[in-house]
Sequence to fold (293 residues):
Amino acid sequence: MHDENHYQRIRQLYRMLFELSTGNLGFRIAKDSQDDIGKLSDSLNTFAAQMQLSLRKSGQIQPFYTYQNVTYAAFLLDSQLLIVACSDNAITLLHSSFALIKNQPFANLLTPASKKVWQQLQFEIRNAPASLETVRLEFEIDGQHIQPAFCSISKLIESDQFLVSTVTTLLHEIAEINQNAKAPVNDTALAQNLYRYILDNLDKPLPTLTKLASHFNTNEYKLKDNFRLFFNTSIYQFYNEERLKRAHMIIEQTDITLKAVAIMSGFNDYITFLKAFRKKFGYTPSSVNRSKD
Fold:
């Protein structure tokens, strides 16, 4: 049981790092024991909170990415390991065109470090009777960006050709995806999407119902009734409950000023935050016991 709990806490650290990498600065790790893992969790929570505050003070727009785009791509190589064909997703992955990579060595797509790995694999590739073990390779995109992917290399039956299958996760700006997401969604997906949207934007004032409905390509009545049906609460009540719980955790785990916490929680001023906090918890923000290093 102890090992399982330890494993789950480590997974939470990885989850936090992943959320930060996608621009989700609202994610927090629940407070637990103050061992090394607990202290690291507190440090990550503090870092995320301070990043939010810095972005807000500087007037910067916080980027947010969706990481739900798992992409599968395939490359067909000849006996010399030159590219003779590829899937459409491979072109998307590389931000390139087939004309530019056709008949090029597969190694040309890789970073210098991965080229060394590929070089070491070549003997095994040519002599392997079946698929090799999956290997992690890094693709060099436009000479500037690196896209890691897990690749499986297979020798085709009764052929001197090879198939390189890859799976990777592409990060896209959510605004870019929203431009192409105007198709209606079912009631369950609508409720889940709004739920996720609210949790990802607790540091901002909640948009009007009209703006939310427009954002999710539906009407106001369907949006609010559908949300209440699934979560048994109104959109605003859910938003307010969650931002106050998050504010409580930030106060408890960091030394950020209470006025800054109010702003980070989507309140326009401290007095409004104070009243809402006291109504929710029965005591003031200054009464919360703050963690000591």
Observations:
- The beta strands are 65-77, 83-86, 135-141, 145-155, 162-173.
- Residues 36-58 form the longest helix (23 residues).
- The first strand starts at residue 65 and ends at 77.
